[in-house]
Write a structure and sequence with these properties.
The complex is a heterodimer of chains A (about 350) and B (about 400). Helices cover about 40% and strands about 15% of the residues of chain A. With about 350 residues, chain A is of the alpha/beta class. The chains are: A alpha/beta (about 350), B alpha/beta (about 400). The interface between A and B is large, with 43 and 48 residues. Bound molecules: flavin mononucleotide.
């Protein structure tokens, strides 16, 4: 497959806001009220999903390829969010994150077959296998260690089994199905595109057999991961694409981007501390967890600087970028209008 | 009386900022990668048109605290009636302020369209009645009626529209319109009549406004000039036993600090064509007024700041009127409070880009307003004495 960049944005699951500590959009925290003498027609007319819908529409309007709704047990439920975003778009692919403990694989597949039918097959799955153990237990899941990957393997096998075969039967350690399988019109649909993560041997082995896209984060050794997974997937005889989840802060020029990083850093409580420097070699800056609540490592700079950073990953085989920038609507427009056009040549070549 | 604050939905595309007068939203510029509504996906147009972005702006401003949006109408724009019909079903509480010139649409048809839109939206239609700026644009529409007669026609138009609104039969013999046995059919006839925001700065406009305006709507002008104009309108209205409210259409460039706000202007100013520093076509008294508050030619953008934060160069950075506010969130809120102090009851705010700035102004500026508090204690207002009677 031709190397091309596929861009997705990340949908917030715990509200959104102009500043790092504000989560007043999407009603995670209360909004600043309008003064009482100003007409306010909103009370009672809006809910949190109106804001999420606007984020999805921003991605659709800005011609972004897709959106990832991460699994977040402390936030909005991703499959429900995904269903809404898909309904209100025509092109956007939406990847819903969840973990195998949330439902039986047949049920997850059944739910997804409906979504595929409703949305011209634009749903993706990101299966989160390795949860923090305390979080897993809070979700009623006590499985530990390598068993988590064994169960994920069975989960995907069974989900794909009932999806593709009528009269499907499976006997496993975790799941059993007798004479299952979907019937028309729930049969014959494309299976949701599967995104997986992790750098452990078990994670890479699972991806080799089941991932359509394997997602890295910028603090991981992407080059080594791509190399190992490429070798394994070749042995499995199926292609895997590589992706990167990456927070970004891009502006007209480097100075403006760093001034904004500084402003957000101060607002996030860093005023007394110096702004950390980016890594001189990789140009990655490690302050995003603080200013955006995302993973720590990402790129700050002009559109050209950020594009150059992404090209570095493209050269290492990464073709999907799941970008994260807040506030989500404004930044999604920005990415669509300013960053993506810098990849217009590559995108045109791939199609 | 509560203050209604509207936003503006651009009907001819949008720029990414005031830094460059280049449109990338809508079909007013070539559709290339990075354009949106229509956008380019995988090398091909995505099948959308500018209405998608208008819907985004409507929802952005609806959810950040604005009661509605003004939809302007010019030869080069999308049509506001069509836009309102399309956006009606995509919003919940949002009011559509439709700008239109009576004269291009028969008043009976305008009544029918309005009543249907009221039914579609639960009564969310508002009118911005404008009577045209003359010159080539007026002829472009096929309208040869001269300035003062346009206001006479506007008056007749509204008489007929109101006449047929609550059912018939209604007869009318005017200079511009005649109808016999007219009236909206039963279910359409039971809709609330749209509020009228009436614009025009000329004598003819102010007379007509006295008769028809629920709100007299002006562009922003230096505050004393605006207060004087409001006083004129009030005088005319009182004479015929009416009492319109006042509204002002204000562009806003607000940032965390005043410095950051002027920095945006400075960046835009660097691209202004020096030849564009003057130019007024047609017979619009309002526009000539707005140009008279500044002594042209100007060399530096700060020369257009006629009083603190009141800047008369917005038309050089984007299409539209000249005056707006530039400053910190706090300063802009204070200036808006001062406008409330001189009698403003409603605002139509706007900023470029409209989507992003709707969030900013809704989240950062509106919560800082103190309004009435100031109006009560204000010695600023030359009309504060009469205000109480309105
Ligand atoms: C707030 C406001 C909005 C206006 N919007 C429009 C518009 O959308 N289309 C248009 O052709 N003229 C518009 N105008 C201009 C009017 O048609 C008219 O030219 C202007 O009010 C001057 O009238 P005057 O000569 O009575 O002062 C607007 C004017 C104001 C004050």
């Amino acid at each position: 497959m031709a190397a091309y960049p596929d861009f997705l944005v990340t949908v917030p699951t715990q509200g959104d806001g102009r500043d790092p500590l504000r989560r007043d959009r999407g009603e995670w925290r209360p909004r600043r009220p309008l003064p009482p003498f100003v007409t306010d027609l909103r009370p009672g007319a809006f809910g949190p999903f109106d804001h999420l819908a606007q984020i999805g529409r921003a991605a659709e309007t800005a011609a972004i390829g897709g959106a990832l709704v991460p699994f977040d047990p402390a936030g909005e439920e991703s499959l429900v969010v995904a269903a809404g975003l898909l309904r209100q778009s025509r092109h956007l692919r939406v990847v819903a994150g969840f973990h195998p403990g949330v439902a039986a694989p047949v049920y997850a597949a059944k739910f997804s077959a409906s979504l595929q039918r409703f949305t011209d097959n634009r749903l993706g799955w990101q299966l989160d296998v390795d949860l923090d153990p305390a979080v897993a237990r809070s979700q009623g899941d006590f499985l530990r260690g390598a068993d988590r990957y064994a169960r994920a393997e069975e989960f995907l096998t069974v989900a794909k089994g009932v999806w593709h075969e009528e009269g499907y039967t499976y006997e496993g350690r975790f799941y059993q199905v007798l004479a299952g399988g979907f019937q028309a019109p729930n049969s014959g649909l494309p299976f949701p595109r599967v995104y997986l993560t992790g750098t452990s041997p078990e994670a890479l082995a699972l991806s080799a057999r089941h991932a359509d896209v394997h997602l890295f984060t910028a603090d991981q050794d992407v080059e080594t991961g791509v190399g190992e997974l490429a070798a394994q997937s070749a042995r499995e005889g199926r292609p895997v694409e590589y992706g990167l989840r990456l927070p970004v802060l891009a502006r007209d020029d480097d100075d403006e981007a760093w001034a904004e990083a500084r402003r957000l850093w101060d607002l996030a409580g860093g005023a007394g501390e110096g702004l950390p420097d980016p890594d001189p070699r990789t140009r990655l800056w490690g302050g995003f967890d603080r200013i955006a609540g995302s993973g720590p490592f990402g790129l700050v700079g002009s559109y050209e600087t950020v594009a150059a950073g992404l090209r570095g990953y493209l050269d290492r085989g990464v073709t999907s970028f799941v970008l994260d920038a807040r506030p989500h609507i404004e930044e999604t427009y920005r990415l669509g209008e300013r960053l993506l056009p810098l990849f217009a040549k590559e995108i045109e070549h791939a199609h | 009386m509560p203050i209604d604050i509207y936003w503006r939905i651009g009907t001819h595309g949008d720029q990414q900022s005031l830094r460059r007068r280049v449109s990338s939203r809508g079909e007013w510029a070539p559709v290339v990668p990075g354009s949106l509504a229509p956008g380019v996906r995988n090398g091909r147009r995505d099948g959308y048109s500018y209405v998608e972005h208008m819907a985004d702006v409507a929802r952005a401003s609806e959810s950040s605290g604005f009661v509605g949006g003004l939809l302007p109408s010019f030869p080069f724009t999308d049509d506001p009636w069509a836009a309102a019909a399309a956006l009606a079903r995509e919003t919940t509480t949002y009011r559509f302020m439709i700008a239109y010139q009576p004269g291009f649409l028969h008043p009976v048809q305008a009544a029918r369209m309005s009543a249907s839109l009221q039914r579609a939206t639960g009564g969310r239609v508002v009118y911005n009645i404008i009577s045209g700026g003359g010159g080539p644009a007026q002829l472009w529409w096929g309208d040869r009626v001269d300035h003062d007669d346009r206001y006479a026609r506007t008056s007749e138009f509204l008489d007929v529209l109101k006449g047929v609104w609550s059912g018939g039969p209604f007869d009318y013999q005017g200079r511009f319109y005649q109808v016999e046995g007219a009236g909206l059919p039963e279910p359409l006839a039971r809709q609330p009549f749209p509020e009228i925001y009436f614009s025009g700065s000329s004598k003819a406009a102010i007379e007509a406004a006295g008769r028809h305006a629920d709100y007299y709507l002006s562009w922003l002008e230096p505050f004393p000039a605006l207060a004087a104009k409001f006083a004129q309108v009030r005088e005319h209205s009182t004479a015929i036993g009416r009492a319109p409210k006042f509204a002002v259409r204000v562009d806003v460039l607000a940032r965390e600090t005043e410095q950051a706000a002027w920095d945006e202007i400075r960046r835009g100013w660097a691209h202004v064509d020096p030849a564009a520093l003057r130019g007024a076509d047609g017979d619009s008294v309002g526009w000539l007024r707005s140009q008279s508050f500044v002594s042209w030619p100007v060399r530096d953008y700060r020369e257009l700041e006629v009083s603190p934060n009141v800047w008369g160069g917005f038309h050089l950075l984007r299409g539209g009127p000249a005056f707006g506010l530039v400053g910190s969130y706090q300063q802009v809120a204070e200036r808006l409070d001062e406008l409330i102090g001189i009698g403003v009851d409603a605002f139509i705010l706007a900023g470029v880009p409209h989507l992003e700035e709707a969030y900013r102004v809704g989240e950062e500026v509106l919560p800082l307003l103190r309004g009435h508090e100031i109006r009560r204690h204000s010695s600023l207002s030359p009309i504060s004495a009469t205000k109480g009677s309105i």
